[in-house]
Every structure is written in structure tokens, then in C-alpha cells.
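Much of what follows relies on a compact textual record of a protein's fold. A complete example follows; check for yourself that the lines match position by position.
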Amino acid sequence: MAEFLSPEWVAALDRAAAASQELQAAAAGVTLVVQQVVRRDGSKELRYFVEFDDGRVHVELGEAPHADLTLITDTGTARALASGTLNAQAALGAGRLELAGRLDALARHEDVIGALGDVFRTVRDSTT
């Protein structure tokens, strides 16, 4: 079991994305980088990103070199989003999620971004 937001957890997300033929097919023709910024206690931040590159999907810990879209949350909101107990629309409406960057990318690639939830379900089920 991987701890939420740990390097092992991010690596598990990456393995799940790489193993999903459905996600790779959905990501064909898509070039997009989505950065997640999680504001932890005080001023500490944790960053990881998902890169869609024409059918290849990669998840990596750290700062994305060229993020198209950035999602910014606190730890509790990030955990709720990752666990599926809160969706992005509700978090955005409640002011618990901030978006920055090319918002049109979100609308254009909503399906492939949404497909991540299904792919990451196995990781979610084994996260502490």
C-alpha cells in the first residue's frame, strides 16, 4: 500500500497509466500536461503532473516543465478528489480547487482527463 502523495504513490499512478490500453487509446492525438499542486501545512507544496503525449501517459513527481493546466488544492481536497469522494466541479464551486493555465484545454480534453479516475481506481483502493 502506498501512502497518499508519496513518491511510491506517484509511481503507482504512473504504472497504472502505462498499463491501461484504454487510456492510451483515449489519449491518442492528445498533447497535454496537467500539473497538480497540493498546498500542505503552512507554505509547503507538493507537485506532480500527468503528461499526455499522443497515446503515452506518464505521471511524475515534481514541477512540470510546461504545464498547460494547473490544479491547486489543499491536502484535504486533494485526498477527497483522489479518493473519488469529491469531484472537481464541486471542489471548484466550493472554492477548494483553483485552476490556472489554459482552461480551454480542460474543456477540449475532458474525456481523457476524466478517464484517469477509472485508471487510478486500483491505486486509490490501495492508498493509505
